[in-house]
Design goal:
8 strands; 4-stranded mixed sheet; 2,3-Dihydroxybiphenyl 1,2-Dioxygenase, domain 1; 2 helices; alpha/beta
Length: 126
């Protein structure tokens, strides 16, 4: 067995429009595919994210609409310049929970997504 890489990461949302406005409108991701999955009873949207995709799952079942994320969960978005990305996102209204920080050969910063998910922008500096 040999894996070829990471196909996608997935998050759930209880407000698909708000989530797509954030990821597409603010972060600039593009919708690659959108459909209803009858098996999962969910709307599914795949967003382009460099060499992988972000799957956004919007469940229709009431028991799955309460969305919570583990404190250790986060999505790290690679960028070539954390400082520039940080300033651009701040200009778009993003409030950061951790400003640009440097450690272990990386520069990074944290902010929150529309469902409370933690997002990181990260740049390798060494």
């Amino acid at each position: 067995m040999k894996f070829q890489g990471l196909h996608h990461a997935a998050i759930k949302t209880n407000d698909l429009d708000k989530t797509l406005d954030f990821y597409c409108g603010i972060l600039g991701l593009k919708v690659e595919e959108r459909f209803y999955d009858a098996g999962e009873e969910s709307d599914i949207v795949f967003l382009s994210l460099g060499n992988t995709q972000l799957e956004v799952i919007a469940p229709h079942r009431p028991e799955e609409k309460d969305i919570t994320f583990s404190p250790c969960f986060h999505l790290a978005l690679a960028t070539s310049n954390v400082e520039e990305t940080y300033e651009e996102l701040r200009n778009r209204g993003i409030k950061f929970t951790l400003p640009p920080t440097q450690s272990g050969g990386f520069r990074y910063a944290y902010f929150s997504g529309p469902m409370g998910e933690t997002l990181e922008i990260v740049e390798r500096i060494s």
